[in-house]
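Lecture 7 notes: from sequence to structure.
We start with the chain below.
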Amino acid sequence: MIRAGRAHLVRTLADLAAAAGKTPKSFSNQKLHKLPGHPEPISSPRARVLLWDSEQVDAFRAGRKVPALPAQDSHEDLLDRNEAAELAGVEPRSWDRYANLPGMQPRPEPVEVAGVEHWQRGDILDWLTARPGPGSSPGRPTGRRDTAPRASNPARAAQLLELQPDITAAAAAAQLGVTADTAQRALARARATAVHQLLQEHPGLTAEDIHDRLGYPLWAAQRALKAAQNTS
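Predicted structure tokens for the same chain:
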């Protein structure tokens, strides 16, 4: 993450290479950013673009002790895609979907630093407080019939799948306020609809492709694909 107030100190691999008088390819091939004692990237371990703090890098190049970064979390810290998803308690691809998810409060606006999108910690925390999420629905009281209008179940199930593609019927039932059987049917219908729409743009997709693209468990992807093909 980029600690509060340090966005102007962010450097990319290309910046490090230029400072060393080398091309990015040569710098990377020689693994000069992995020399003993070289500062670790400030980006998350799975980040697509690695970033460093120039105060640390400059100290290393000058032979000085590398200063430690601030350890205290701040609402103004900037988190990359993976870190934002972790704070929100979802997978990165689910975090990506929050950008344009209909019927839900959109995720916070990103801040671009060195060509990489980041989100302010405080904005994410405020968003988590405001958005509907697991536990926000009281569910169905024991012994009661479905409390939600049946016609709305598939659309609401589709929203849940956007948030958590591998959600179980029991978890969906608690959030939709319906029985597990009703939730299972709603999830199946929502998955089939999503797969049908996907096949319109990408005919010939396999269940494995659908699993990779939509995040559904493989068994669910197989059933949804079969159902979508039967309605074509």
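Points to note: DSSP finds eleven helices and five strands in the chain. Residues 150-231 form one domain.
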